[in-house]
Amino acid sequence: MLAQDSILRLDATAIDYIIIALYFTFVLGIGYLAKRAVSNSLDFFLSGRSLPAWVTGLAFISANLGAIEIMGMSANGAEYGMPTVHYFWIGAIPAMLFLGVVMMPFYYGSKVRSVPEFMLRRFGKPAHLVNAISFAVAQVLIAGVNLFLLATIVNVLLGWPIWASVIVAALIVLSYITLGGLSAAIYNEVLQFFVIVAALLPLTIVGLHKVGGWQGLVDKVTASPGGSEQLSAWPGNALSGFSSNFLSVIGLVFGLGFVLSFGYWTTNFVEVQRAMASKNMSAARRTPIIGSFPKMFVPFIVIIPGMIAAVVAPELAQFKATGSGDVDYNDALLILMRDLLPNGMLGLAITGLLASFMAGMAANLSSFNTVMTYDLIERYVVKDRPDGFYLRTGRWVTVVGTLIAIGTAAIASGYSNLMDYLQQLFSFFNAPLFATFILGMFWKRMTATAGWVGLVSGTATAVAVFVLSENGVIDLPGQGASFVGAGAAFVVDIILSVIVSLVTTPKRDTELVGLVYSLTPKEHLKEDAQHGDGGWYRKPVLLAGISLALTVALNFVFG
């Protein structure tokens, strides 16, 4: 770490520190103000279900603008180039639109407080317990990624040891989450969204100027290791790990675009929680759809800087050519900031990175404390206590989750490309959950026993693929192991769920109204759909259609 410190140290001055200090003042101030609106557990965990769609929509996308998007996608841009856009245009937007149009009426209409609670109503306690525990574990692991990268920025800026930086960074996030709960997280995420864009857009513009514009970048990337394949999104062989163009496209569309993407966006409570905080059904449905519009343009301020760093920074170019050196792909943005930005703009860029990691970690912690409190502690450990008890418990759970995240940050530090790590986690937890969820929502015959059997077997299958890949039994470079693992988990989950359902007893139809699509009256799904939300531009299906059309157009332009 000493070598990395000396290479990546950012030459910040007083103006940079002032900008950072102002940002933290706003962040903590929002937490303090949000605390005044918290009077019960629903306020703390779900913002009292009172927020407008534009707030929850921006928070929805900002919650995902953590380490995964900023450093992880920049690292992917440096390593793979334009195929990384698939994480946005194939691996996010279609699923976000599906969540808003099809699934949010079930989540919001059932008035559940979490995704695991929806699983409880559909499949019963065993599936609920498996889902709640696996979700909680996943969140502290992913929070560790955000925390490690947040600490890396503090380390580079101040020269503090990583362990001290991890603790300080954790305390900052912990302070405003324990004060104001989800409202503090959401309003800070809206602030963080604008800070992130204000930081990364100038970096992209300056970087493109440095390489001679878009054509200059094309020429330099073509001449670099990986060549011109990095300039086209399809077929994306290096990213998928397949040498066959056909198999690569299948892997991206099915593994990433369907299983991993739908598994993440439609069942991940980190994201769904923002929509569930909306003021009514229409706002809840529009939340992920509104988020899809900025989502489709994020690649231009995240992936492009990574590609620029890989061709203008000698140490990163050396790492890409030889696989060794004092830096790795995760350092792409830091190197670009160090080399290109003047003071003042450097402070804004650092603030943008801090904002992104805080948004990601806060999202993990706010969903972790909800599931731990509502789905595990209240349901199985300490039952039937006054509401104030669970409000206090939620704050203490946040503290515990932060301490665990400090430990899991050490795991994240061992990966040269953190997207490899994150996608592996998603194949473990999200892919089997999506299979169980989607089958249970559209097939009334699926039973409670099939629910937990499918989850456990799907997760075990993804872990088995990972182990085989790590030991060289199957050769899946890039992120092929996570794509194949996710696909295998999905298929195994579906097959075993069908078999088990056919030999066990399903619930009665009357118990599944509001939980299964075919048994739920359309009036139930549309209830309150336009209450206080008139105007064509507030119609969820129309907005989703516009978003999908723009996404298809982008795939053609950059394909």
Automatic annotation (TrEMBL):
GO MF terms, alphabetically ordered: D-glucose:sodium symporter activity
Record's keyword terms, sorted: Membrane, Transmembrane, Transmembrane helix
Transmembrane segments: 14-34, 54-75, 87-108, 129-154, 160-179, 191-209, 246-267, 288-313, 346-372, 393-415, 421-443, 450-469, 481-503, 541-558
Cellular-component GO terms for this entry: plasma membrane
Compartment annotation: Membrane
Major location category of this protein: membrane
Membrane topology: Multi-pass membrane protein
Family matches, as Pfam families: SSF (PF00474)
Highest taxon listed in the record's lineage: Bacteria
The family this protein is said to belong to: Belongs to the sodium:solute symporter (SSF) (TC 2.A.21) family.
Name the record gives this protein: SSS family solute:Na+ symporter
